[in-house]
Specification:
Elements lengths: L12 H11 L12 E5 L3 E2 L14 H11 L5 E3 L7 E5 L1 H10 L3 E6 L8 H10 L5 H13 L4 H7 L4 H8 L6 H8 L6 H13 L1 H10 L5 H17 L10 H8 L20 H4 L7 E7 L3 E5 L10 E6 L5 E5 L3 E8 L5
Parallel strand pairs: 2-4, 3-5
Antiparallel strand pairs: 1-5, 3-4, 6-7, 6-10, 7-8, 8-9
Helix pairs in contact: 2-3, 6-7, 7-9, 9-10, 9-11
Length: about 350
């Protein structure tokens, strides 16, 4: 008896399925996400919307030489490939240096988290590495404001305080001589430029002399110029003022359009212990704040400044006492002092 043998039939449609699998865009394998890969440089392109535009810094050639010798030690981050090309999220400077160094591949990590693709993430990456030009940051802030973002939300998303936004926006409206000093590398940092702009507004001749006389503008030079300005104001005090009375000189040389001296007057009846008659009054005021945005400090209210526009402070962490511009302090709390008078 001859057994019935079922013949196998080869389905040609299976070839089409195989062909479709091999010709479609390659999927990102799980073992390629979050790990360091060596990707050919000719498969990597820069993000045309990258907020950072200025890559010319004084350490560029040293950076290129180091990458040529050791390669890229910190991998760049790229988006998943599209048509075989990876767009840079973070690391355009390392990419450019690798090209100039003549490398063929670069260490890279494929990033699938879409929240890492936005321009806030790109700015954060550069600012935390402290290698993004102040003007690039200013132009980014300007772009976000034009897009409808508030200054407070911009500061929050950049993990900075509100002053950070204010300082950088000042760069977009620099006087010509300050803009030229910035382009020449004489002054760096948004906060420093902001203070120089304010000095220029108050004393343009003094600011011009400061810029022309120094190769690098520092905070100490601006403070010195401020004291020179205040000393000039003191020398120009009205001649009919008794200059032996330091209190009168202080009043005569300080313009306080926002203050009414009459508010300081108290009747004899009110010169008693205010905390007993009016509980809302502060007997021993304690004024706290932050110096240069991040150093907690106490304002020394009983120390008379040597210069108009300055105040004495004591740093909470080090105990150091300083006389600084009042504008450098961000006030935070006014309360009753618990310590000694």
């Amino acid at each position: 008896m001859i057994a019935n043998v079922k013949k196998s039939v080869f389905n040609l449609e299976m070839l089409d399925a195989v062909k479709r699998e091999t010709t479609s865009a390659p999927a990102i394998l799980d073992n390629q996400v979050g790990v360091v890969l060596a990707i050919p440089l000719n498969q990597i392109i820069e993000d045309e919307n990258q907020p950072r535009k200025d890559f010319n810094d004084e350490n560029w050639q040293d950076f290129v030489s180091d990458i040529k010798r050791r390669g890229v030690q910190t991998p760049i981050h790229v988006r998943p490939a599209v048509n075989g090309n990876y767009i840079i999220i973070h690391g355009a400077r390392r990419y450019r240096a690798s090209l100039e160094a003549g490398l063929s591949k670069i260490a890279a990590i494929i990033e699938t988290n879409t929240s890492a693709f936005d321009d806030y993430s790109q700015v954060l990456e550069n600012t935390k590495r402290a290698n993004m030009a102040a003007m690039d940051i200013a132009q980014f802030i300007q772009k976000r404001i034009a897009a409808g973002d508030s200054k407070s939300s911009i500061a929050e998303k950049l993990s900075e305080n509100a002053n950070y936004v204010t300082y950088h926006l000042a760069l977009l409206d620099m006087p010509e001589m300050i803009a030229e000093a910035y382009s020449q590398g004489k002054i760096k940092g948004a906060q420093l430029i902001y203070r120089l702009i304010n000095l220029y507004k108050d004393a343009p001749v003094l600011a011009e002399s400061l810029i022309n006389s120094n190769e690098e503008i520092t905070n100490a030079l601006i403070l010195k110029a401020r004291k020179t300005e205040a000393a000039t104001d003191t020398n120009n005090a009205p001649q009919d003022v008794d200059t032996t009375d330091t209190a009168l000189v202080s009043v005569a040389t300080q313009v306080l359009p926002y203050h009414n001296p009459a508010n300081e007057e108290l009747s004899t009846a009110k010169r008693t212990d205010l905390t007993k008659t009016e509980p809302s009054k502060i007997k021993k005021p304690l004024l706290l704040g932050f110096y240069q945005d991040h150093q907690p400090c106490m304002v020394l209210l009983h120390h008379k400044p040597t210069t108009a526009g300055f105040i004495h402070i004591k740093l909470e962490l080090t105990g150091e006492c300083l006389e600084v511009p009042a504008e450098a302090i961000k006030l935070n709390l006014l309360t009753e002092a618990l310590g000694k008078e």
